[in-house]
Amino acid sequence: MNSNNILSALEAMLFASGEPVEPAKLAEVLEIDIENVIKMLGHLEAMYDEKESGLQVIHVDGKYQLCTREQYAEQVRSLLEIKKNTPLSQAAFEVLAIVAYNKTVTRSFIEQIRGVDCSGPVSNLIQKGLIEEKGRLDLPGRPLVYGTTDRFLRCFSLNSLDDLPDLPENTEENNDEQTSLFEDKADNDAENVQEDGE
Predict the structure, then answer these.
(1) Interatomic CA distance for residues 182 and 187, integer angstroms
(2) Would you say 55 and 68 are in contact if contact means Cβ atoms under 8 Å apart?
(3) pLDDT tens digits for range 71-113
(4) Is 0.85 surpassed by the pTM of this model?
(5) Are strands 104-106 and 131-136 parallel, antiparallel or unpaired?
């Protein structure tokens, strides 16, 4: 692996980690000595400084981390607030209804009901703290199981999932009915999902 490849690999690993990483761990992954890793991290740091990049390499208690520069903190905060306050989409409401009414479900179960890939809405709901991983099924592939959170109950003013309105008998209408129940609640208390926990 040449120097450019090492630099690129270090950059990718620091970015993906999102938290400080020990040089020894980086060296282990790259299968090179720690001194070389520290030297290359110095090059990476200098490269960002030279380009006046919005990113920088910092040292935290003997570890290294890739982060944004302080002078762009206001813009980054504004972006994250915008992202945080993005209202739930129709797809997210549908996924949330399926999870809530079924207590715990796998992503494949959700996708089977909706008929489309649900990775985006599921990730969005996890990010907003409305659903979370509850464990894995003892089945081939050990699929993750998702369920609602306490924040979900607070946002929709529920004491427990038992307080959810009953669904009609016709199962074909259940998904639409589930979604409309959540949308009606969101219309009545539109700021709950966006503002809770801010």
Answers:
(1) 9
(2) yes
(3) 998 888 888 776 666 678 888 889 999 998 998 899 989 999 8
(4) no
(5) unpaired
